Amino acid sequence: RSWAQGTMEHVVIVHAGAGFHAPAAEPAYLAACRRACIAAREALQDGPLAAAREAVAVLEDDPCCNAGRGSNLNLDGAVECDASAMDSSTGAWGGVAAVPGVRNPVRAASLLAAEQRVPLSHGRVRPMLLCGEGARRYCAASLGDGSTPLGSDGLVTAEAQRRWKRYSDWLETDSGRDGEEVGGRRADGEVDASHLSDTVGAVVIDGGLRVAAAVSSGGHWLKYPGRVGEAACFGAGCWAEKRRAGGSGGGGGGVPP
């Protein structure tokens, strides 16, 4: 249906991560995307920013995605996530970077964006981006039960722990060539999970042409603790303005504008 005819209700686009995926995992990714779209549609009554947030939160909760629970682990074997969100109605953007132990960092990013419209007392300036422990403290103080800090262990799946041990052993026994990625295609032809390093995201357009975008990522395998990825960077992770929006990931894929 056409917006020009005034009959288009909304558009929801979700991205469960580009990169290399084993064919056997395709049903899991499709199911996650389907649930994310449904969550976005149900939240649209609260606006496109809320819808994009809820879509990405579903992907963060699914261990098949590199975001939230199921994220790639850093050198220390811990989860540190990046996320950002933007609303075309106000131009507001919010992000969190290298935040440990938070189930749904996109909720914090979305809240930071929404709070840009509310002034602080005594002339203080609201943060757009929070990192590390400061971001974790903000989540603990501001978010509800669904996103309160869990401690890093609460986000580390058994499969992620197994892979981290394998990749850590590779680092100790084989230095590799400069620029060579950890892992690769296995002997059985399946794609190694170390290549699943991309960002998940969502773009939502409502019937009034209001647009919002949100992204979230666990980052690269064995990244240095404290590393800030593209998903948490203004103008790099996601963007939203009237009639257009997009999201990108470090793996070279993304939601097109």
TrEMBL record:
Gene3D superfamilies in UniProt: (Glycosyl)asparaginase
Example GO molecular function: threonine-type endopeptidase activity
InterPro entries given in the database record: Ntn_hydrolases_N, Peptidase_T2, Taspase1
Site (Cleavage): 198-199
Active-site annotation: 199 (nucleophile)
One GO BP annotation of this record: protein maturation
Record's GO cellular component terms: cytoplasm
Top-level division of the source organism's lineage: Eukaryota
Matches recorded under PANTHER family: L-ASPARAGINASE, THREONINE ASPARTASE 1
Protein name, entry field: Asparaginase
